[in-house]
Specification:
Layout lengths: L1 H28 L14 H17 L8 H29 L14 H5 L2 H15 L3
């Protein structure tokens, strides 16, 4: 059971760190918008910086998982990419419905779903990757 807790920590740390670092990298060096109609603040540079940083973090966290360093980096890369796509899809849904944020629970971050939109795509894939290749 302890391994499952560490896998959950790995998932949340990688995905949320990617999300936050995409924002930070975008503010620092972002120039080219990636999807201005869906999410005007997302930039190519922010996405690349956040995903690469989260991949490095995932590789560094290999020791809390059953993965090798290379496997942890590859899985972290997939999680970060899927997290980015999850954020875009949820932004598209919000735009379609005419909603800016999913709520006001977290000041400055929108609602709870705004914080977890990146987990919507990454968590199910992570579950099946881990379940398929590692018997837990």
């Amino acid at each position: 059971m302890r391994l499952l807790h560490f896998l959950l920590v790995f998932l949340i740390l990688v995905v949320q760190t990617s999300d936050v670092l995409q924002y930070i990298w975008g503010k620092l060096v972002g120039r080219r918008r990636i999807a201005p109609a869906l999410s005007p603040s997302k930039t190519v540079e922010g996405m690349a910086g956040g995903i690469l940083s989260a991949t490095a973090l995932g590789a560094g966290l290999w020791w809390i998982t059953p993965f090798t360093v290379a496997q942890a980096a590859l899985i972290a890369l997939a999680l970060a990419l899927l997290g980015f796509l999850g954020g875009l899809v949820m932004s598209a849904i919000k735009r379609r419905r005419g909603i800016k944020d999913w709520g006001t629970l977290i000041a400055g971050h929108g609602g709870m779903l705004d914080r977890l939109d990146s987990v919507c795509f990454s968590a199910p894939v992570f579950f099946y990757v881990v379940r398929g290749w590692w018997v837990l």
